[in-house]
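pasting for the record
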Amino acid sequence: MKNNIKVVVIESPYDTYQDSKEVRDLMGRVWKMKLDGYKLHYPYGIMPVSEIDFFANHVILCEEIQGELFPFAGSRSISTTQCKKSRIEFPVIEHLFQSISKEAEPLLQATKNWINNKEKKNEIIGYNSSWTMCPRVLESDHLKTLARDLSMAMYYYYYTSYNIPNIITAAASRFKVDRIQKEMGFEYVKDEFNNNFSDFTSRAFFEQKCFMMILNNNQFPLEFIRKAKEFKKYWDNRVVFEDTTSVEDFDQVA
């Protein structure tokens, strides 16, 4: 495995972008990677960058070349705590369920219920989205496997380290992402009879289908944790661009 691979966490660019040239340079590369990755697989007009990018944390896999970081895979995660601080709605519903068909309305309600039940218990939820690989990764089976396996391991380390016990995400049917999520312990959102909902058409995926998937209380399977620990050194040696603001700081300014 290459020695120049770095895991980078960029916390809340809204708070770190202005004062850090490194964050500005790196986020420009992250956004280019996302556009390159999504435009390869979706029609013109796909937009993997949004308001969420500024308030979320970004977990990025990079190659370090002559002291500079170049992203080749990564995702973003925004928590209910971050949304409270930023005074925005937790974006899952708005992001994924715009203009849905009647057939998807029960799934929408079940997703809302899951979120509401967690929030009533004051449990934190993280919404993971916009996972992308740079197109050049696809040219190398080794790098593609590394990008997948290391990204999966970082799910475990990120969410357990940041004390976010519940995760919700959408898994693109076309790429069978739900199978990868199941290896990590995710479940399909279920109906009132405990049956899995099927995939649905989402505008966020440019009218392509995805599954809603959830993980409760960081219940990662033991076998998955064992595999994740093979990549622990990358998390231990991660680069973090830290957001040092707080809800209290924001309230004082407001």
